[in-house]
């Protein structure tokens, strides 16, 4: 009887582990980072449209970045787990639309995705394989329509300036979590809305409040350039 229940307990533990619940994570949360293409392109470095054509005037994915609660982050965690486009063949057309490369010279995206997987993705390989990693980011992006959150609050990509606190509240109200805004500067030195950070739990599936925010500063009024 007693031996029997011990065996049952062991079986349950094995099942729980196989379902992924006892995998040890080597990071605390993800930053899910989306980028305004107009603000990548109108800087000194400029940009090149992908070989597949000009991306939509919408936020694109930059990355899903494992982070620690103390603000530090791991990178390049497994040089043996190289990016393999064949593993995400079914996601490729969505990735071209939603995770567009803007680097020069023009590319098909594989270079950008390789960088993101190898620098950041490999550090979450204990929970997400390559397909799971890119799919998680695509699913997250569908859940939060940043552009719609902003435009319905009257904040439009029209080259005008908007207050950082209005931008934050518009996003907070729609998304339900506090965003972080990263700014960069256009060629005239104006501070502008570059990237929006949200935090995600270690499964890569659920938005959470950020355990720690990135560093950096925007002006109190920031430009939202067109694209
Ligand atoms: P990371 O290393 O993931 O923090 O991202 C920074 C690198 O990604 C820099 O080299 C950027 O120039 C590059 N980068 C950022 N956005 C894009 C983009 N949309 N397309 C291609 N490269 C990008
Ligand atoms: P500060 O202007 O740095 O004193 O920040 C005033 C408030 O705005 C604080 O609650 C900050 O956390 C917040 N804040 C400042 N910069 C940003 C930003 N780029 N994105 C989101 N919140 C910010």
UniProtKB/TrEMBL annotation:
InterPro entries: Ribonuclease_T2_eukaryotic, RNase_T2-like, RNase_T2-like_sf, RNase_T2_His_AS_1, RNase_T2_His_AS_2
One GO process term, biological-process aspect: RNA catabolic process
Keywords: Disulfide bond, Endonuclease, Hydrolase, Lyase, Nuclease, Signal
Active site per database record: 62, 116, 120
Protein origin, superkingdom: Eukaryota
One of the record's GO molecular function terms: ribonuclease T2 activity
Gene3D superfamilies, per the entry: Ribonuclease T2-like (3.90.730.10)
GO CC terms of this entry: extracellular region
Span of the signal peptide: 1-24
Protein family: Belongs to the RNase T2 family.
Function: May remobilize phosphate, particularly when cells senesce or when phosphate becomes limiting.
Name of the featured protein: Uncharacterized protein
């Amino acid at each position: 009887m007693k031996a029997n229940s011990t065996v049952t307990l062991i079986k349950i533990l094995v099942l729980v582990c196989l379902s992924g619940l006892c995998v040890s994570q080597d990071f605390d949360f993800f930053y899910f980072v989306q980028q305004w293409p107009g603000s990548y392109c109108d800087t000194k470095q400029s940009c090149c449209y992908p070989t597949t054509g000009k991306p939509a005037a919408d936020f694109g994915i930059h990355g899903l970045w494992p982070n620690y609660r103390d603000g530090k982050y791991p990178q390049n965690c497994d040089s043996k787990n190289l990016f393999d486009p064949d593993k995400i063949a079914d996601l490729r057309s969505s990735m071209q639309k939603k995770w567009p490369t803007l680097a020069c010279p023009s590319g098909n995206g594989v270079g950008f995705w390789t960088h993101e997987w190898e620098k950041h993705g490999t550090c979450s390989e204990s929970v997400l394989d390559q397909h799971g990693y890119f799919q998680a980011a695509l699913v997250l992006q569908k859940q939060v329509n940043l552009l719609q959150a902003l435009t319905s609050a009257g904040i439009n990509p029209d080259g005008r300036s908007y207050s950082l606190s209005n931008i934050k509240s518009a996003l907070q109200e729609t998304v339900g979590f506090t965003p972080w805004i990263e700014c960069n500067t256009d060629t005239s030195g104006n501070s502008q809305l570059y990237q929006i950070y949200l935090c995600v739990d270690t499964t890569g599936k659920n938005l959470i409040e950020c355990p720690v925010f990135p560093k950096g500063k925007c002006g109190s009024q920031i430009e939202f350039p067109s694209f």
